[in-house]
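Methods, example record. To illustrate the input and output format used throughout this study, we show the complete record for ATP synthase subunit a. The sequence lines were provided to the predictor; the line carrying structure tokens was produced by it.
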Amino acid sequence: MLSFLPTLNAFPLASLEVGHHLYWQIGNLKIHGQVFLVSWIVIGVLLIASIAATRNIQRVPKGIQNLMEYALEFVRDLAKSQLGEKEYRPWVPFIGTLFLFIFVSNWSGALVPWKLIKLPEGELAAPTNDINTTVALALLVSLAYFYAGFSRKGLGYFAKYVQPTPILLPIAILEDFTKPLSLSFRLFGNILADELVVAVLVLLVPLFVPLPVMLLGLFTSAIQALVFATLAGAYIHEALEGHGDEHEEHA
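The corresponding predicted structure is encoded as:
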């Protein structure tokens, strides 16, 4: 188990434990409790923000309504840039959900002092700090990727695996496996590395020196959410475009 436990005035400001977790046993199923707890908090924050933004819609938006409308426009532009004018609308909810969940999860790890909340085992952290979460998100992208291609071409979609020659079948299958793997490891590795760097800096030089690194971490966390959502849109676009149908160029 790898553990960083720097303290200041007996309060842990930054700590990270790898390999030590809180599990819930439900029958024969073992559930990663700490990831579920923070994931529910992130989902709750997004639901509350959505309800607050749509509770009393104003013609001239302000406050939380203005923020959520900006987020919606950003996601729509992101989906349109990857999928094109004709294809993007059905995929806005999926890509938007990915982006907002990852964005809020990443920032929760950087802004919320989860370490002050004691658990029987392990500790709370950003959901994207756990490889299980990032792999699950990447698999959702894979399912969306296959659904997009299958809905466009039917069973003929799988003909791409033997084109232009069946000899390339293993390579085509390997490519589809590497896409979710690259998504999951990129997100997990960057978020984990950021928290490790902050933890080590707090251990060596408490309080002031880590602040610029924490600000940089907020920026890189936002970039990681953007990269994940952008690649998800690109993979879906590839599945829709690669079957002889005319498709608009990226906006």
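Annotations derived from this record:
The chain has one domain: 2-241.
The beta strands are 2-4, 7-8, 11-12, 16-18, 23-26, 29-32.
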